[in-house]
Amino acid sequence: MKNTMLPLILGLLLTACQQQPKPVDFEKEKAAIQAVIAKETESYYKQDFEAWKSTYLESPAFRKYAYWEGFAEKVAFNNGFESLKQEKKAQFEADATLWKGSTEERANENFRITPEMAWYTFEQFSYEKDTRKLLGKSLETRVLEKHNGEWKIAYLGYHYFPDTLLTK
Question: What is the pTM of this model?
């Protein structure tokens, strides 16, 4: 009995050691995530559909939940990337993107990063590029997944403050 238990215990220990999560180079991954978010925002305002699309997880698992007073229904959502892709393609083709040429600044950034998934929250301030007039302030959430070594946005959430709160 003793002779059969030792290999079993050693096998369990080896398995447990092999299942330890890979260490994350936090600063490297943080910079990569910030670069994806910057690319998504920049390509959105430039209406560069292919560059914009490349930042997203093209999957039925993708979600977008958003609030903005400017939406007719106030709340917008997409369950699955296909519906967002079609919506943005039509928007870009119609040259109907608001705030083109604006600049965005992010503050109060918070990151949680594992080897394959990241959670990123921040406040975003959007300004007219030339006048620095505040266009909007939002609370933003991104959940990203790593696919083939690249971060992709799997969840997009934002909540814009009502305009009445921006003037106070």
Answer: 0.85
